[in-house]
Q: What sequence folds into this?
């Protein structure tokens, strides 16, 4: 928790003012019972009406001053805590953006969402209270005891006796609830995970009639969260009544013994009234403190989860001496790609996903990668933009190891079309321009035409201004792929990476797209991962992968004549007439 408070530095002036205002408010609250006692003892008892009016007016001014300080403290504490929450969310989001795929897999998307939203909200709420209560509670508690002692030392022993009892109760409850608060946040993570999987996979769930199963999963996760929350709140619910019971008994004792002292002439009525008010001020101070002890454990658990994300450093970072060449014509990436003895193992995996991969791809050429499911095709693609780093060997672009380049420079030269087409909420124009912010409307239309997307865009009501729903749910799989391809084309990169991005297209659209793509990529390096032989057979170079190893490299005809793995793939897809 303390580590996160360093993000409060920009608001230190507001925090200091909150502390000052709360201090003044507490002083005014402590002073009012003394003024009331004076009115009763020196005004009401003696019948001195002018004294009553004079001290009463002064009490009103003190009360108004305390109210003004309370309003100022509330406003500034909310402003400072709100700014703290905003800055912390921004910093956490920026830090998460630097993560490699490994870090996302390690923490989990659902947990990252919970930590960025719910956990930061918990810390922000506690911070709002802390700025006021951490000054007010001890000041009101100890100040109330001192003021009570000034009125009657013997009667004050009742108040002094209940403070450690209440403090002990708070300590016991807090020590038992802290582990439960940590567990509650984990249960919330699990609920978010189940909910996210259900919403994103709703088509598959309904297609396989697994709605009941998913309902059961959600019910179990929801019940676990509810049971933990009920257990925590049951403990916390017992805290306030117990404190009220103790202080009410103390009030009865104060009235009983105070009445006896008034009868004996050792105490005045006004002093007893002030004494009772101080007792209740001490009670409310302890109540505020108990509220902090209720919220702080949960916020501490949330702060630890947030700090865990900050402590997790990305595996893939730019080296301090990384080659950051300016992106002008003379220094721009040309696109010569070389895999030199590359092997790769996913974190925690026992087997290599890629083993001893070596090949070259040059500008103006189309290099295709084909192989069975799980042979490592997408893994090879992911190593080029450094989504992962090679375990052994090197991936080089223009003779420079990609680990020696800045990620910004490397990725600015790549147009990637991922295996799973991803669209964002907005218009079609927004989604295509996502590849290049400065693209003109003409650039966008040209990219859509090359990607064979202009026809279906023209049939939509608003054309290029038609809205894309979340995740592209209002367009088909083939339309998603074509828009993703247009997004890469509009960037005009030096390297095109197509990761099985023609799979949802029919054969005619596939052929037309590749034919339209050829003139656009004459000076670029193109790497295509595909399952269909028809997509790769015209490539300048075909790499055949088998269980993470290169089984052959050559043209379609060369591999067909000499490579049994490739021949098996071809014969499983094409007829004898098509092969001939």
A:
């Amino acid at each position: 928790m303390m580590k996160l408070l360093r993000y409060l530095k920009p608001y230190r002036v507001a925090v200091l003012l909150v502390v000052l205002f709360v201090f003044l408010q507490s002083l005014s609250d402590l002073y009012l019972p003394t003024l009331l006692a004076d009115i009763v003892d020196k005004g009401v008892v003696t019948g001195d009406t002018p004294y009553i009016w004079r001290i009463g007016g002064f009490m009103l001014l003190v009360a108004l001053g305390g109210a003004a300080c309370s309003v100022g403290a509330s406003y500034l504490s909310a402003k400072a805590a709100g700014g703290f929450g905003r800055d912390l969310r921004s910093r956490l989001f920026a830090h998460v953006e630097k993560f490699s795929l490994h870090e996302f897999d390690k923490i989990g998307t659902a947990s990252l969402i919970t930590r960025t939203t719910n956990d930061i909200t918990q810390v922000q709420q506690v911070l709002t209270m802390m700025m006021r209560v951490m000054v007010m509670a001890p000041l009101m508690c100890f100040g109330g005891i001192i003021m009570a002692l000034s009125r009657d030392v013997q009667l004050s022993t009742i108040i002094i006796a209940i403070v450690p009892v209440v403090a002990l109760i708070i300590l016991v409850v807090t020590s038992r609830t802290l582990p439960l608060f940590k567990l509650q946040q984990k249960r919330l993570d699990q609920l978010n995970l189940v909910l996210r999987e259900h919403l994103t996979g709703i088509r598959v769930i309904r297609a396989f009639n697994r709605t009941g199963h998913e309902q059961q999963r959600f019910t179990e996760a929801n019940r676990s969260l509810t049971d933990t929350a009920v257990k925590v709140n049951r403990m916390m619910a017992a805290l306030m009544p117990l404190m009220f019971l103790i202080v009410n008994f103390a009030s009865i004792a104060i009235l009983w013994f105070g009445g006896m002292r008034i009868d004996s002439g050792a105490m005045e009525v006004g002093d007893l009234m002030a004494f009772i008010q101080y007792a209740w001020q001490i009670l409310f101070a302890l109540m505020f403190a108990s509220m902090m002890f209720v919220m702080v454990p949960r916020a501490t658990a949330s702060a630890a989860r947030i700090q865990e994300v900050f402590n997790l450093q990305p595996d893939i970072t730019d080296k301090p001496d990384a080659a950051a060449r300016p992106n002008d014509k003379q220094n721009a990436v040309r696109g010569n790609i070389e895999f030199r003895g590359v092997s790769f193992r996913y974190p925690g995996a026992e087997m290599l996903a890629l083993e001893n991969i070596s090949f070259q791809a040059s500008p103006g050429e189309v290099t295709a990668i084909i192989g069975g499911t799980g042979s490592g095709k997408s893994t090879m693609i992911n190593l080029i933009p450094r989504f992962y780093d090679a375990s052994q060997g090197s991936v080089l672009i223009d003779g420079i190891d990609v680990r020696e380049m800045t990620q910004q420079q490397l990725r600015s030269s790549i147009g990637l079309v991922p295996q799973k087409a991803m669209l964002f909420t907005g218009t079609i124009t927004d989604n295509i321009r996502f590849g290049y912010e400065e693209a003109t409307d003409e650039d966008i239309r040209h990219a859509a035409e090359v990607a064979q997307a202009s026809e279906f865009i023209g049939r939509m009501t608003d054309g290029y201004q038609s809205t894309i729903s979340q995740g592209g749910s209002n367009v088909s799989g083939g339309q998603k792929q074509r828009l993703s391809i247009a997004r890469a084309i509009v960037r005009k990169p030096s390297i095109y990476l197509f990761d099985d991005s023609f799979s949802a297209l029919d054969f005619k659209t596939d052929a037309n797209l590749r034919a339209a793509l050829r003139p656009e990529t004459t000076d670029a390096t193109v790497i295509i991962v595909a399952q269909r032989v028809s997509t790769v057979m015209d490539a300048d170079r075909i790499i055949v992968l088998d269980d993470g190893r290169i089984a052959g490299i050559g043209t379609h005809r060369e591999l067909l004549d000499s490579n049994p793995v490739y021949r098996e793939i071809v014969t499983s897809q094409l007829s004898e007439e098509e092969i001939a």
User: Anything to note?
Assistant: Confidence is low (pLDDT under 50) at residues 325-330. The first helix runs from residue 12 to 44. Residues 414-492 form a domain with the Rossmann fold fold (CATH 3.40.50.300). The longest strand covers residues 337-344.
